[in-house]
Recover the amino acids of this structure.
């Protein structure tokens, strides 16, 4: 008996959530030392792409401007972000990573890569080829969805983050507010 697409999709989501939980089962001490919330980490990763206006940060996080401003204040206080006047418009202030902020984001990327490499190390070459092919298929599907302009449903976006299908590693945390991470 063959399964319906819904049944296979449900199993896919279940497996992705299970894998996400297994990958996150050990807390990362480096994040705890900085006392960063997941939205703060997401913001650092966003700023890795280059300076952003406060309104862009708020939109990216799905929060109000005042919440984004308060969060940036905390990141400035930690020495990870700085506010810089926009040379094209003196009324505009952009936020960018400090050298320390850049170092932290690079550190997070290295930690994430190391965890993935540890998983890959226990796979045979054949298994790894199958996983890589499946990930390529998922990557194409995500690109097609974006190109079609399909909006994220709240539950769908959360499931994608939990499943590790979000746009960046920080989004994969599944936390959407500036609340402290749970460990």
């Amino acid at each position: 008996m063959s399964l319906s697409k819904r049944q296979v999709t449900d199993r896919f989501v279940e497996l992705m959530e299970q894998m996400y939980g297994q990958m996150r089962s050990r807390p990362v001490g480096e994040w705890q030392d900085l006392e960063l919330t997941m939205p703060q980490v997401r913001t650092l990763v966003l700023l890795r792409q280059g300076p952003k206006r406060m309104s862009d940060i708020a939109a990216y996080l799905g929060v109000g401007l005042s919440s984004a401003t308060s969060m940036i204040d905390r990141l400035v206080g930690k020495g990870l972000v700085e506010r810089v006047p926009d040379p094209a418009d003196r009324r505009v202030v952009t936020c960018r990573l400090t050298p320390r902020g850049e170092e932290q984001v690079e550190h997070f990327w290295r930690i994430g890569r190391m965890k993935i490499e540890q998983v890959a190390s226990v796979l045979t070459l054949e298994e790894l080829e199958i996983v890589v092919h499946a990930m390529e298929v998922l990557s194409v599907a995500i690109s097609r969805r974006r190109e079609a302009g399909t909006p994220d449903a709240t539950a769908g976006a959360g499931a994608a983050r939990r499943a590790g299908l979000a746009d960046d590693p920080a989004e994969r945390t599944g936390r959407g507010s500036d609340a402290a991470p749970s460990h």
